[in-house]
Amino acid sequence: MKYDILIVDDEDIIIKLVRHLIVKSNLHGDPKAFLNGQDALEYLSSLKQNTTPQIVLLDINMPDLDGWDFLDLLIKSNFCEHVYVVIITSSINKSDRLRAEKYDIVAGYIEKPVSMNNMEEIKTLEKLDFLFAD
Amino acid sequence: MTEIDTIKRILIIEDNMGDFLLISEYLEEQFNQLDLEHVSTCKQSLTKDPGSYDVILLDLSLPDKSGEDLVNEILRFAENIPVIVLTGYSDRNFAIKSIGLGTADYLLKDELNPDILQKSIVYSIERKKVFNQLEYSEKRYRELFHLSPLPMYVFDKSSFKFLDVNQAAISHYGYTKEEFLTMTVFDIRPSDEIERAKSIILNDEDPGMKTPGVFKHLKKDGELIDVEISYNEIDFEERKALLVLANDVTLKFQYIEAIEKQNEKLKEIAWIQSHVVRAPLARLMGLVNLINMTEEDDQEVDKKELLQHILNSTVELDNIIRDITNKTEQINIDQIR
After folding, report:
1. Chain CA centroid to CA B80, Å
2. Which residues carry this modification: 4-aspartylphosphate (chain B) (predicted)?
3. B216–chain A Cβ distance below 8 A for any pair
4. Taking CB atoms and an 8 Å cutoff, what residues of chain B touch A17?
5. How many Å apart are CA B8 and CA B6, to the nearest integer?
6. Which of A81, B92, B240, B287 is most buried (most C-beta within 10 Å)?
7. What sign for the dihedral angle of Cα B258, B259, B265, B268?
8. Cβ-nearest to B286 among A61, A91, A114
9. Domain carrying residue B159
10. How many domains does chain B have?
11. pLDDT at A13
12. How far apart are CA B40 and CA B62, in angstroms?
């Protein structure tokens, strides 16, 4: 694979569900999963020399470090160059969607529940076009 | 039609027949239409209806009454009808004094002639008309102030003392009029608002109506109220004064505050709906989706575990809905009433 996928969600069952969909849809064979944002940031930071694009499927409502804080820390860091975020949230608030659009690093915004269609949607996102244009 | 052409209804109170005849002769010479009535005592005149005359001519010495008593009696009887006093030269000083009592004019019998009599009558009637109109409009304005349903008061701009208060202010603030008149406008304010009010009054120089906003006022029973003030400068008994209208908006403010609180709660509920309720719901939908798409013998998916998650989600959802119901019940705008 020419890219990696990270799932960041505080709910174990959602990780299982999303991982299942990713594998089934052939989006990726072995996505990595993190139950909180801090762990995911540490992992990304350890990839500093690695130029493989990292797609982060990010939950917003998480205890301690929520999705917004995660984004703010990420764009301030020096390891965000090859990171692309797709927000996956249960929020249906317009204000959350508008807030997400303000981040350059955010490539997509998906409202839960996640389905197979969403996996196909990720493949067509404009900012991720270069990864899937075969 | 000139004043001389309109019908003149005149009551002549005169005990000297000779004088009466002379006066009526002069009147007939001057006025085209006359309705004369003659009485010779004070008692007799009081039996008449004053409203049926345009002017009353009064001799100052009658057999049953004379001087100041007579003038006062006839003036009371005449109400709004002008009274012209007729007198001999010896009573001249008193005649002048009678003007101060409220008579329209005095005429000395020795100097009387048709022209003087005519001018005095026409002039007295006209002046009384204007005077009555003025009095009426003054009364109207006084009523606008005193009968206004909104509290209003007038206070001296330099001593800050109340000069007048209307009935609405008396019943709203709980002070009697006499109490108000010994107080200043700062006595109806909490101490921390006095400086603000003082600086507005002292810096008031431009003419016209002003609405400096909402102030805290203090009722006699100690209750604090919010009042919206509007005021204008007026001359009150030759003093620079401010006429103030104080509209109690306490209840309005309480409603606004309650509505704002309600909005906060509604926003909170909307946030909960979107973030908290939807989380277990979306999870449920995802789980059902997952069960749907896995084959019976898929080893990777533990259906028992999925069912447990579904059950947990429904319990979570139930708790959240109870929580929202509690929050909704906290919104109670009726408490204000």
Report:
1. 27
2. 59
3. no
4. 286-287, 289-290
5. 6
6. B287
7. negative
8. A114
9. 148-248
10. 3
11. 87
12. 7
Q: Write down the CATH number for the domain with range A4-128.
A: 3.40.50.2300
pLDDT for A30: 93
> Strand B105-108 and strand B55-59: pairing?
unpaired
- Closest Cβ opposite residue B286 in set A17, A24, A92: A17
Point out the domain boundary residue: B144, B166, B188: B144
pLDDT average per 10 residues of sequence, chain B (337 residues): 73 93 92 90 91 92 88 91 87 85 90 92 91 88 91 95 96 96 96 92 85 94 94 90 94 89 84 81 88 74 84 90 79 62
Best interface-test mutation with B: which of A10, A12, A20, A110 has the largest number of B CBs within 10 A? A20
Q: Does B2 fall in a domain?
A: no
pLDDT of residue B329: 75
The pLDDT tens digits for A26-59 are: 999 999 999 999 999 999 999 877 889 999 999 9
Beta strands in B118-222 (DSSP E): 152-156, 162-165, 210-218
Shortest Cα distance, chain A CAs vs residue B290, angstroms: 7
For residue B282, which residues of chain A lie inside 8 Å, CB to CB? 90, 111-113
Distance CA B169, CA B174 (A): 8
> Where among B192, B224, B248 does a domain terminate?
B248
For residue A126, give the 3-state DSSP assignment.
helix
0.90 surpassed by complex ipTM: no
Residues of chain A with Cβ-Cβ distance to B281 below 8 Å are 90
Contact A34, A67 (CB under 8 A): no
Partnered with residue A6 across adjacent β-strands are A32, A56
On whether the pTM is more than 0.90, the answer is: no
